[in-house]
Structure formats: structure tokens, C-alpha cells
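During the second year of the project, the team shifted from modelling isolated chains to modelling whole assemblies. The rationale, set out in the original proposal, was that interfaces cannot be judged from single-chain predictions alone. As a representative example for this report, we include one of the complexes processed in the last quarter. Its constituent sequences, exactly as entered into the pipeline, are reproduced here:
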Amino acid sequence: MAVTAVPFPLPRDACSIAGSLELVGERWSLLVIREVAWGNHRFSDIARGTGAPRDRLTARLNALVTAGVLEKRPYSDSPPRSGYHLTAAGRDLLPVLQALLQWGDKWVAAEPPLRLKHAPAGHPEHAIDAEWICRTCGEPATGSRVTRELTPAGRALSGLPADEDHDHEH
Amino acid sequence: MAVTAVPFPLPRDACSIAGSLELVGERWSLLVIREVAWGNHRFSDIARGTGAPRDRLTARLNALVTAGVLEKRPYSDSPPRSGYHLTAAGRDLLPVLQALLQWGDKWVAAEPPLRLKHAPAGHPEHAIDAEWICRTCGEPATGSRVTRELTPAGRALSGLPADEDHDHEH
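Output from the structure prediction step:
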């Protein structure tokens, strides 16, 4: 996510941001994932929690199941009923929601209605103020501290030769 | 972003996630922010980089300027031309994009075309594997490690009395 001056020649949809947005980059999708993460598993509860029109919600839920972000699990035999649960891929979207929540608390909400707290006992009673930390060195890893480079796959997509000095994997 | 069993009675649009998605929860908006973050400031470059239809891109850019996420800065007097740059609020969206990129690298892309690297010299040549860390205690702060509670503002929105034990700020 570097702020560098020279754009990459990467084809527009090759980036993983575009790939993610293709699956979940829509208001209802991310609100659905919020509802399920917060314990609303039934269609009617997800509909009420998101405010999504029922036909669009049905389409979104089916798409998220097909994409492997949600899975259906039965909760009643008669009548037969299933609820929606996060898969491992769905749980991995929680940092995206947390980033949106933190941004909205800072830049959108006059008075944030929810406060996230860190679960460990004795943790101070204030909102979490999280940041991206590099697992390798433990330092913050966002904004201008981050650079990006094409992988071999990215170089191939961009029509660039594979043997330049950025390419360490051939 | 806790996975707790009991949903909150919060009105559906009061949450800051909904507020954020109202502003930037749309495929083109987040791709526009990606392009500007990566150094594409001119309309034509943003159009090429996102693939957005020009009329929708114009509407999105205007909305993002009105929302305070982007700002226009002149780069030519004759003809008069302006480019788009991230404001402080826009730069604060980079963790959202980084979360989407990391998710897409893991769950969408067969071979990620881009690799993010931590800028400090001597840092290993592999992709950043960042996680949300609580600034207070330095521990991971996502998923089940996070709980949520209503703030006084949230209790008022939900029609709940303000004097329950969760409410420490009155």
C-alpha cells in the first residue's frame, strides 16, 4: 500500500484488492459478514440487521456460500431450516471489518455507538486502537512504511521479462 | 468484531462499519483509493487503472471529494487540470486496503501478482504478514480476542437505559 510515485503496469484486475472486492466489495456483503460475525445466523435476523432487501440478500448469501465465505448449517429438522456461519475464509475477513469500524469511528461517527475491547481480563476499558504490525520485525507496517513489487506472476501478467533484479524466485 | 452469541439491539445503520461502507463500501470507491495511493492522480490514469466507466468514475470521484477522502490539486494552468490526492482520512483507509489485499492473497489469488514489503532496509524479502495489534498491550486484537459493548451513545440509540453497569461514562 505504498505511496510511491511510479504506478505499476499491472493489469487492472490482477491485484488481490480487486479480487477481494469482486467477492466481498459490496455494501451488503460486508454487512452480512458483520451480522454473522455478531451472532445473527438466521435469514430473518440477517435481513433485519442489514436492512438489505430480501431478494438481494438471498442473492448475496448464495454468492457468499458459493465463494466459500459462508456455510449453511441446519438448525431445525421440521421445518428444515439452515443458518449461515463464517468459514475460515469468512473469519479471515474480520480484520477488514475491524479496519472499517476503526475508520468509521474516527472519520464518520459523531459518537461511536459500539466500542471494541480487548478480551483479556484487566484490559483497560477503552476502545481498541489497533494497527498493522509486521510479524517479522514487530514494527508498524502500513502506509509509507510499505513498498510493493511485482512477483514473478505479476511480471508475467504485465508482459515484463522475468529476469530483472526484483525477481528472486526464479 | 467479537463472535458472541447475543446480538446487540443497535439500529442497523448506527454501527461505524455501516457508516464507513456508506462512504467507501463500493467496489469502485476502494479501487479509486488504491489507484491514488499507488500514485495515479489523473482522471485518465485512475480510469485505466480501475476500469470504471467514466461517468461512474466521475460520480465516485466527486463523492469521495465531498466526503473528504480525496482532494483535488491543480497540476496544470493551461489547460486547467487537477489531480486527486488522498486526504488524511483517505490515508487512514490504507489499512482497509491492506486487509483486503492480504485476504485476497490468501483466499482469492492463485499466485499473488504483488508483494508488499516492509520498507526498512535489510528487511527480509518476503510478503508482509501483518496483523492487528492492540496498542495498549501489544497483543493480537482481532477475532475472538475482541469483545464489543454499547457506548452511552449506542445505548441511547437502542432505547436502553443509560445507568447499567456497562456504562462507565455518565
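Chain A touches chain B through 102 residues (CB under 8 Å). Chain A has two domains: 16-92, 94-162.
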